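Milestone M4 deliverable, item 7.
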Amino acid sequence: MAGPASSGQDFDRRQDDRQPGIEGKSATLEPRDIHHLLERYKAAASLIRANLGELDAQPTYVQLTTGTLGSETGARLGEAMRRAPELWNWLMLLQAVLDEASELMAQGRLNGERRDRVQFLLYGPSILVGVGSTPFGHRDLVGRPHHELRVTVAALIDQMRETYEPIRNGVAEVERIWRELLPRIESGAATILRLQNQLTELGAREPLVDEVAERLDELRSTIALDPLAVSVEDGVLFDATLERSVAKVTELRRGHDRLDEDLAGVETKLAELRVMRARAAAALSETEVKIRNPGSLIQVPTTDPIDGSGGLAERADRLRSHGWGPWTERRQRIDDWLAIAERYHQQFDRADRINRTPLARRAELRGLLDAYKAKAAVVGRIEDEHFIRLADEAHNELHTAPTDLARAATLVADLGASLRNSVSTPTKPGVSS
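Output delivered:
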């Protein structure tokens, strides 16, 4: 029985693939060699039958061969799947040759025509797999337009292996995608359903949940119809989008639950901003009075942004008086108010820190001056006229308003240098640092 003619092109290159010197009656082999080869081929046929049977039983293979393949999966696996039945046809041809050889071997000692026949069956082009066309340019004057395609057992097994491997690899790849993605899709569907229920309960809408639900439907459809059009990475991206959706809905839930608490905390926030503004303004005034040429300071606004017309306090009153309406609108108004309050908080905090920086520098120099005086007492310089003069000048500069920070820093630095020099060269025996 010949295989499908469509497979002839695969065997055209194999029809002369035979063991050299063994064709027909041109060589005589030892019976033990023939027996050994027959047993090897029978074992191979048995394994081929088992593997093809297992392939046919694979649920993934069954789905791929009984359904319509999508564009990507069809492009990569369609031809391989269409050729799968040829494997069973070729196995029948192989088994027929091996059965005939086994029957001849079982008839007793090999000799004469039986030996030649067995040799031809196992080593020669004994298997008719189809009919090939002979191109006109290659045809003899008395040549036929068609010719038989015959191959050796070895060539047939090689062709079966080449045909089988793309099928096996494709089935394994689809199975891996289904194994990796289907559980994610099912768990994702359960999560999305819960998110949608929560949004319904909250009376809110989150576009990202709609987006991930649409993506779920797309993945589910694509995996079923065209599994090779998706990858495991698509599942990773889906999981990431789903996680963001969960975070969004969780934040909505928190916003809903904190609504009354945030509204109640508005007065506390107002009081905090008033204190911060006052501190920043006081720092500006104190620095301008106590420090000469303090550098760039930040002017603090009046109380209007907080307590003036249209300020935060007035807006807070409107928040409390508009308790009706959807909670999402109230949540948005409170969030807007809190965002403005936070900006003022940052501005006042920055102004306070920058406006107090010159005063902090003065305090730092005062502390350094006191430390140098204490050190001078230890090393015996507290009565040194030069040291006393520098210390007095520095003290006067640092404790008289307005303080010239640049001059005070120079005086304190000179004082420290003088003290270090005296420590490195003691003026009194037995005095150490």
